[in-house]
Predict the 3D structure of the following.
Amino acid sequence: MTIHISPNPEKVAQDFASYFSEWVKDKPRAHLALSGGSTPKVLFRHWADQYSEKIDWEKIHFFWGDERCVPPDHEESNFRMANELLLKPLGIPEGHIHRIRGEAAPEAEAERYGQVLKQHLPARRNLPAFDIVLLGMGEDGHTASIFPNQMELLTESAPCAVATHPETGQQRITLTGPVLNNASEVVFLVTGPGKAEKVKEIIENGAHSLRYPAAHVAPKEGKLQWYLDEAAALSVGR
């Protein structure tokens, strides 16, 4: 595990964007899973504004770690945010955008998206293998759409599954634990003081923090990085 601490969310985005720019240079193709949330929003803007010419975007295929079961133009759609801030501004070809269809029947879409992953991603241990998965973490320790009351999704055999938000009851489609942990690299982008105690427990105790799904995401044969702002890292080492 590698931990990067930056002063604020904007610098978190800048630091990861710089890392990604160097990482992708020598790759003939890259399969990237995007996250929703406030920190990725900053990252997407930064990529579009500062890296439109510095990265060969046409060799990158875009996927999603999770999606709310809403239409693609809905204000809560993870696809909509990425499309408006990143994909459209960069002119990403449609054939490189592999969205979760939040408007479809959830169970059928989870099955379909699992097949999409198998079709487009290389396989490792008979599972789709992303190059990089971007993840956030909620104040309850959830990641993607794997919530603390649905820990079984961490070991679900299917690549994708239907999840339910514990408070709103909203259905979501999420990558499952085995696929997340099969990635070559997982990058957490976490900011804000409300997450500081969870960040401390997860980083210092790892999977022993059994209550939190984010604690169980650590690639078996890959790299794990946490990009934190100072507020989220406040309790680490204390």
